[in-house]
Amino acid sequence: MAVVAQSSRGWVLNACSLIDRGYSRCARRTQDAKSHVRCRFKRQCFQILKSHGSVNVRAAAVDAGNTEMLQKTNKPPKRRKRKHSELNQGEIDAQVFHEKIRSVISEGTTSLLDSARSVGYLNGATDAVEEPLPLQECGLAALCEMAKELPLVDEEEQEECVQSLVDEDGCTSQVDLFSRVTENSTDQATVVSLMGGEYVIPARTAFLLSDFTRMQPLVNYGRKFDLIVMDPPWENKSVKRSRRYSSLPSSQLKQLPINLLASANCLVVTWVTNRPSHLRCIRDELYPHWGVEVVAEWYWVKVTTSGQFVFPLDSQHKKPYEVLVLGRYRPSADHSMSSSYVPVEDSRLIVSVPSALHSQKPSLSEILRRYVGPEGSCLELFARSLQPGWTSWGNEVLKFQHTSYFTLSPADDPANISGDEDPQLL
Question: What is the pTM of this model?
């Protein structure tokens, strides 16, 4: 069950089940044959067993799958001395924000966890075997950088900006992933070989693998979206030190062509780090620039498999929650809110066990369905995975679709579709 519990306070999600939906029957295509397999995201990626506040650094790193942290524990710790004992302004702002929402997080999480435990979820049980986390090195961003040397499709040739992953004969076609939107328009997920690797591509999905400077094919795709979800690569010192991915300043994020991608009253959802400056940037700078009106602020609460916060709620180091800012796109010529849309409630919680893989967020498709409508067209920006029925863009858009993150097993006759398969979540 993907949505384990829900109430007026929010939802408890089984993030792994959300990924699995739509993969119970996948066509696996090779040069010589076609077979069918069942794909399940590896369970050990969602087995966060202990709160990081109650274990040592090394144990926390093991639970989080953070190999970088593990490497650091083998070196003498370096402590940076603070010049003053007083909090700086950023820390003061963060503390004020935390105190403002603390009771919402605490009381709402307790209520939702009670509902989840009543159906046997988040009771500490685990179905994962003790296996190491997949350590697939993602070189997609580097490939996007090299692909800048390739010519872009001319805007006058818009119809050529789209290509099919599977040809009319059901075989994987030769595709240009970097300058054309690639579609799997079939009703079945497929496992295909791309760029020397094997990837699981959901049903009825489309994607563009490119960096920020090569988004034009997505604009030329010609679709307007009713839901846009984005997880921007926010600038911060930790990212710069780790060099895990490239960040973007707000001046560049402003250049996202939201007005060319969003339909009227499109719901725009943005993941925000816990830095108050990033939250202010979204509310006061980016959303107004894009013509998006803030309608709600939600919180993703991260818990262990036994329902404990992954970090103490009042931890000065890291908080066990992240923020989502929701808004409606309103074209300048239309300032009215369509009555056909369900109002978005404020201060909702999304409670789930987080992935041990860096930057993997839970799918929001199930809980956003009612605010967009069953026929809504959905887009994810800065995506690192694909979702059935969605369009996705990013320079690592296929990262978590690599088969190294899945367990593949033989499937029965494809005509016997499993009841838990729902290839179009929105």
Answer: 0.86
Domains held by the chain: number: 1
Domain range for 380 is 3-73+91-410
Cα atoms found within 13 Å of the Cα of residue 421, Cβ hemisphere only: 19
Residue pLDDT, tens place only, 261-295: 999 999 999 999 888 999 999 999 999 999 999 99
Residue 416 falls inside a structural domain? no
CATH code of residue 164: 3.40.50.150
In sequence order, what E strands does 197-318 have? 197-201, 205-209, 225-230, 262-272, 292-302
* Strands of 34-41's sheet in order across: 197-201, 189-194, 26-29, 34-41, 406-410
The closest of 122, 172, 50 to 352, measured between CA atoms, is 122
- Asked whether the beta carbons of 126 and 47 are under 8 A apart, the reply is yes
Whether residue 421 is contained in a domain is answered as no
Look at residue 63 and tell me whether its pLDDT is greater than 60: no
268 contacts 13 by C-beta, under 8 angstroms: no
- Each residue of 383-424: pLDDT tens digit? 999 999 999 999 999 999 999 999 999 986 544 444 444 434
Distance, in Å, from the CA atom of 21 to the CA atom of 376, rounded to the nearest integer, reads 19
